[in-house]
Every structure is written in structure tokens, then in C-alpha cells.
Amino acid sequence: MKLNVEKLADHEGVVVLIETENLDASNVKEFREKIQNHLEANATVLLDMHAVSFVDSSGLGALLSALRVMNNKNGQLKLYGMNKPVRALFELVRMHRIFSIYNSRDEAFAAI
Amino acid sequence: MNSMTQEKTAVLVTAPWGEGDGGLDIATDMVPVCGKHVLHRVMDDLALRGYRKIHVVLGEHALDKRQYLHNGARWGCEVTYHNLNPHETISAMIRGLRLTEEEVLLADSHVLIQNESLDIQAAQHGSAVVMLKNEIMQWTGWANVKTEWLARQGEKFSRQGLSNCLLQDQTISRSEHSVVANAADMSGLLETANRLNSGVVVENGAYLHPSVQIHAPAYIGRNVRISKDAVIGPNAIIGECSLVETKALVRHSLVLPATHIANSLEVNNAIVSGQMLYHGELDTIVEIRDRVLLSAIPDVIPAKNIADLNERLLALLLLILLAPVHICLSLGRRNSGGLGRGQNIQQHFVSRFYPGLIGLLKGRVKLHGPEIRTPEEVKLLPPEWQRIYQRNRCGLLQESVLVSATSAELEKSIRFASDVYAAECKDWKAGLGLLARYLQELLKVLISQERYADQKASAFGYRKV
Question: Lower CB count within 10 Å: N or C terminus of chain A?
Fold first, then answer.
């Protein structure tokens, strides 16, 4: 799994593009390890979910852990570019009520 | 064969079947789901299957349905209406149509088609849901029948009667997945077969926990089980034999028959069937691969395959070992009129666990529901879901249901939580662990009850006999 990280120009934060199609039990450990440094080092993390077409329960667990890390230090974690099946899954398990989810990068930026 | 016989004909029964939905403010098949009435979806499906002549049998809400379907032109069909008089049976009405075609599709207006290899696809022209199937494997209200057969049926056309007739005469296999419980088994649950409030219909055999919230309009099919704190409606249809778990929410949605909705899920603006979820607002179909969340309740396996000799021997051993405990608790309940402290687990033991062992021994019960998760898998779950496991005394109470193995025994079946899973589960180590935890808890309660009785005796200065 590869995470493409881009520094935000105007804010202390990063945009992280998850470059994997599936975020599931097979790669969730790797995702946790790779994202951890960015969560600790930045006040704002925007997760670009464009490439992700499937998330399973362990993937959701990893995203929740990331959210918890950011909440604990009063940081922000925002998700955007989620495709429809993933969004449907988020709604099914009520995660859309917990996460800040935006349709586009611009919308996510505007909400910072 | 004349030109008329080349047109495929369907009889769409929108009138109540047997128990019916009398008195509703809105007909159950007119409940909007994902912005479209179920009746509309049924018509979509009929048109897609090439049925061009549709006889619509009208009962209550006739005017609404007539106005809605109009002349059927929007589906490219020719719709003919037939009003069902209050004293006329559906069978008499259908026979009175004097259909000349050899085969007729008999359809129930509020039931969509489902089969084992259900495939849900978004139609090209919009958000319609199309159920594809090659042959009828699982009857849920639709059947191709011969007109001769229709003529023979006399007055049998109640919902159950029709089902039985179809099973016999058309050799259509019907899955026996109903969750039926006896009265003793369903302590704390409300059995109802009545209309609760205006706009809410609960069919026979459905069980609702008293804490369930139902907002009209809502329709709950036969043998549905809805666990505590679930919220159903508005605009919800729960198909027969489905299982909606604790705190789940279903609104503006259709749950097709024999579907398991797990704890705390939110089904909103969706159609769910097994692991397939069609999201109306997003107009997307997603397969939920995690069977713990959504799953189809599978068919029952024949009794001989259920419990092998080892499992039955284990059940027999447990029956013998736990007989004294069962006798004590039963006598205690009879003498004191209740079970006293820790009554939940005691009641569970007396009315579910122990009878369940007998059922297992006879090969009458079978676990339904998702497979057990390993501890490693549980660790990967979000914390909220992990707590489901931690909260449940036996680990899987909310995730599985045991039902009768044979249709003959269905009405007598014993449904109880997954404790007997311990004896039946292929992962015997995990099973024994669960069983040990259960018995340990039971023991703790019994000991604390004994101590409590001692303390009470000394406080009041009398001697315990």
C-alpha cells in the first residue's frame, strides 16, 4: 500500500491520498503504521479516498483509530472523494455521523 | 394459439391475503421505498419480464391503486381491474377471470422476487431495482401456475394455503428459515399479530421486543424477529423471516425476506437482500462482504447433517450433568413464583439453554447466522463492535439464531441464543470456551443467590431450612 502525501500550503496539515483499491484486513496493519506519523505530526489531515473502492470492517476500524488520534489532540481528520459503495457502507454502519465527509477536495479545504 | 395467448399474462393480487392489512391508512404495497412504491417496482419487474396483460385484483385502497397504475401505459402494459367484494374470496375472483392462457404468473403486489442467486442490478433507465432469476427456487409470493391448477384450488387461497398448494403442486422448494419460537422461549418479547397503530402492520409469527419503536407506515412480515431498541419506519417493509438486531434502524427501506440486519446498523433509503444493499439516494449497489453486518439467513440443512455423533454425545453429557441445576432452578421458580436475583441468566438457562440441548440431541435445531469470528478477527473490529462481543454473555448472542431443522417441526421449534453453538460449533475450542463462560456465570449467580439467602436469614433471625 502506498500513501501519497502532500503538504498543505496555507495550513499546518497534509493531504493523504490512499493509493489502494481495498482497505481491508490484508493491508490495514500497513495502513495504520504508515498513517500514524502523519497523524501525530499534523493538526489537519485530509484523507483522499478516491482510489478506495472497498473498505471492510477492519478498514473502518483503522479509520476510526485515526480519528481518535486526531480528536485526542484537537486535530482534524476529514475524508473526501469517497466513492458511492464506500459511502453506502459508511452510512450503513453510521460512520457518516462520526466522520467529516466531503464530496470534493475544495469542500474539505473550505471546512478547515 | 391465437394472438391473445402470445401475450404473457399475470394476475397481480393487491387485495389482502388472509390476515390482510385492513384498516391501514396506506396500503403496504404503496409504501414508498427509495422514492418508489413497492407496487411500482413490482410493475417494473412484470414489464421487464415481458408481461403485457396484467389483471389487477383490487381490495382495500382500490381507488389509490387505480389512480396510481392508471391504464398501465407507462409500463407498456394493458391493465384490467377487478374489484374484490368483501364476501368474495381471492380464489373465486381469480377463477372468475376465466383465463384462457395456459400459464399465468400469479403475483403478490408487495413481495418482490427472490431466489438463491439473487442479483440486483440498477436498470439502465434509472434507479429501478431489477431482480433477475432464471427459475423459481424460493417462493416468496410469485409463481407461474397453470390455469387448470388455478381452477382446481377451491377456496384455498389464503397466503399460507397458496404457499402450501404451490409447494405441493408445482414442486417449488421453499426455504424453511422461519424463526419461530415457543412462548416459553420468548420471555420478555411481545408476540403480536395485530395492527399496532394506524399504519403499522405486523403479520403472524412476528416477534417484537417491547422496546422496539415503530413509525407508520411500516409493514413487518411473517416470522420476523426484531430485537430491542430497534427503530422501524417510517416507510419500512421487513420481509418475512428477517432478523433485525438490537438498535438497528430501518427507514424508507425495504428489507427482502430472510435477511439478517446486524446490531446498530442504519438502513436508510435502501433495499437490502442478503449481503446486497441498494442505496437509493446514492443510486449504487454494494455487496457487504462482512457477513456479520448483513447476510442472508440460509436454508436449513436436513436434520441428519446437523449434529454429528460427537455433538450429540456432548449435548447428552451436558443434559445429564446439568439436570440437577435445571431441576433446582425449575423448582425454585415454581416455589417462589420467580427466579429472584440473576434471573435473566437463570431464565435463559431454564427456558432456552436446557431445552435447546434436548433439541440438539434430537437433531432438531440448527445454527443460523454468521459464522463465529476468531479472537484475532474480533480485535480488528472497530471498538463499538468489539463491545458487542464483550457485552454478550456467551459471545454471540446477537449474531445467531437456532431454528428447527425440519419443516414439520417448525412450529414447535426451539429458538435460543447461541449457547448451544458451543456444542455445535466446528471450532470446538472456542465453543467450549463460550460454554465454560456461560456455566461459570450461572454458577456465580447461584452462589451469590445462596449467600443472599443466608444474609437475609441471619438479618431476620430465622434459620434457613
Answer: C
